Structure formats: C-alpha cells, structure tokens
Amino acid sequence: MICAPLGDILCILCALSNAIYLIITERAVARSEVNAFQLGVYQQLVTGLGMLVLSIFLEGPDLPRTSAVWTSVLVLSLFCTGAAFLIQSVALQYTTASHVGVIFCLEPVFNSIFAFFVAHEVLSPRSYAGAALLMLGILVMEIDLSALLRPLRRENSRS
Predict the structure, then answer these.
(1) Which of 75, 86, 105, 125 is most solvent-facing, going by the fewest CB within 10 Å?
(2) Could you give the number of structural domains in the chain?
(3) Which long-range contacts (CB under 8 A, 24 or more apart) does 66-71 make?
(4) Per-residue pLDDT tens for 64-77?
(5) Where are the alpha helices (DSSP H) in 59-144?
(6) What global pTM score does this model have?
C-alpha cells in the first residue's frame, strides 16, 4: 500500500522532471545545428525503448489480444503521444518552456471542453469552480502587473 505523502512526492517529482525536460528541449532546439523534429523523434525512440525494457522486466510481456485494443494502442501512441510531443519539440523553437507549461496547465480545461462537445458531459459546480481557479491562477502567473500599473503611477506622479 502506498501512503499519501509518497503519491504527493511522486507527483511533484513528475512535474519537476517535466519542467526540466521542457527547459532542456527549449535550449537544445534554440541551437541552429539541432533539428527540432529529429530531436523529438529521437526523444520518443529512446523513451519508448527504455520503457519497453522496463515494462518487460517489471510487468512481463502481456500483449493486447484483440484488434480493437491494438487499434486503440496505436492511435493513442502515434497521435496522442507521438504527434503531440513532435509538435511540442518544434513549437519550442518559437516559444518558451514557461508558455508551454502554461498550456499544459490548461489541459484539464481543454479536456472538459472537448468532453462537453464530444461526449455531452456536464461539469459539476465544483468542477466549474476548479476550472475558474485554474484560469485565475494562470492569469496571475501571466499578467505583468508592474507593466499594467506603470501608466497609473505616471499619472499619480504628475498630479
């Protein structure tokens, strides 16, 4: 049985490792001799092969038995993971890791919107409150209050 603090620690370590990954990738694709698309492919190959080896040793081989499961695995791995991380590697040439982090923070909001339109799911009031808090937190992170307050300070100093 895993104790609650261990789960919290693992979540924090995962977030930290993702932040480090984004920063390293951002610095790598900023160099002119690095092809962002190739870097993304190599990252996925190394990660995929490493996880395959770990899964064989930790879980043992257990392959899907039906074509429906194989189709799901292929679609999820190629499009939801593969394409997303390739696009991310290329996009990091044009934006910063901090902006990618903000977009990742919006993932639950995008998922809720997608679930509403595709599966006709309706959020509970608690979920709406959570989404509002998430959006408010992102606004607080992204808005430069000192830049917004500069014109007000100039007007007050002139008076």
Answers:
(1) 125
(2) 2
(3) none
(4) 889 999 999 999 98
(5) 67-75, 84-91, 97-105, 107-119, 125-142
(6) 0.68
